[in-house]
Amino acid sequence: MQKQLQLLRDLQEMDTEKNVVETERQAGLDEQQVLKAELDRLQQMVDSLAGEISVLKDEQAELVSAKALEQENVERSEGRLPQIKTQKEYVAVLKEVDTAKKLFKDLQTNIDAKDEILSSLNADKEEKDGELTTNGEQADARCAEVDASMVAVNKKLAVMERQRGGLLEELPKSLRKRYELLMSRRAGLAIVEARGGACLGCHMHLPPQMFNSLFVLDEIQSCPHCSRLLFVTAPD
Ligand SMILES: [Zn+2]
Prior knowledge:
By secondary structure, the protein is mainly alpha-helical. The protein has helices at 2-80, 87-170, 173-185, 208-216; strands at 191-195, 198-199, 229-231.
């Protein structure tokens, strides 16, 4: 019985340590994920800016073509002026020229406005590009560091898993099942010390007779409150 109890305590110690290592491993994986998500977010911003810039450039190119067309209209109308015979026709052509000139000016204003937006978007994109490069390098370096530590952590876990398997094999099947069930239902703590008349797993008092029997009875007992397996170290 004492041997089984010792096996269970060794197993508990190992599982508690394994939990710590697994938590460490998960923290590393989570950190990598956060870093990658941040890079993805930056990349999306850069892509979206590039998309906006491309649309604006297309719109601007259309305005430039329209402006060239109005320029031609002005020149053509003005070219007709010397050949005009009547006052009425003269006024009509002058009006055409005026209209074309006004359109030309409006188009130029629109083109200039797009220029302003474009230069602001380009500056924004340049900044985000820079951030992406810097953060990308930092994230790569950190991820490589985490990867390197993961190799050690995974090795450690594999060793623990092997040792754990060895301990489990030495336990009778029923006790093994009881231990594993308690581990899953009692927050990773299956076997605890009873001290000063109380279970140190749930901190409830044990019936005095039961507590005393832990020192003499030759069987593994459970806490009546939390069902965890109990051991004692020295009589109080
Ligand atoms: Zn308890």
